[in-house]
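Quick one:
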Amino acid sequence: MAWYELTLTVRGMTCDRCGERVRQGLLEQPGVLDVAVDWCCGTATVVYDAEQVGPEQLLAAPIFAQEVRQEAVRHRYEAALAGGPEERPWPACC
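Output:
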């Protein structure tokens, strides 16, 4: 198993609930171990098994491919690689 950490830039998050929806949407992807979302900064840091999923699949996750309806409000989230396609082995060592 090769675990990696990757940070995505996510547009469209406006509150904690948005961040939790994005987090849950990414956790549903095969091979994703953990997701930390900062909706204020618009980032999602994903720890994943590179043998099961890669950056392309994370960017194509259904949470980014569809509109999410919450009460009377529609949400649309968009993701991109933050700062380029840098993958870091996880856990990051000193």
